[in-house]
Description:
Blueprint: E1 8-12, H1 15-26, E2 29-34, E3 37-41, E4 47-52, E5 70-73, H2 77-86, E6 91-98, E7 101-107, E8 113-118
Parallel strand pairs: 1-4, 5-8
Antiparallel strand pairs: 2-3, 3-4, 6-7, 7-8
Amino acid sequence: MFKGLEHTAIASPDPERLANWYVETLNFVINYRYGGNVFVKAKDGSMLEIIPSDGERATQGMKAPGIRHLAIAVDDFDGAMDLLRTRGVEFIGAPANLEGNRLVFFTDSDGNLVHLIHRQKPLP
């Protein structure tokens, strides 16, 4: 009955601009638009819906309540970092190695936390 997460929504003051950031920076594609909302899709089929925001942005913090980050799976961690650097991404701290997994944080053009992850062994 329940098949999984179809998409996650992010509210943005400029959905088109943020969608284009995901296209230009992470190679997503814009796959659907309606009523000011923009869907972007990753190579693996996962999607983000970017909707127009209202009001001021809440304070962002690594452990603040709510959804904290988007994790982008990569098969070539160092290559992905190098490519993102050429695309103007500034990383938050150095890459970390945790239990055989490599990860590094950065933000999208709206300040949402994102990180690259390369897992030595996929989660069960």
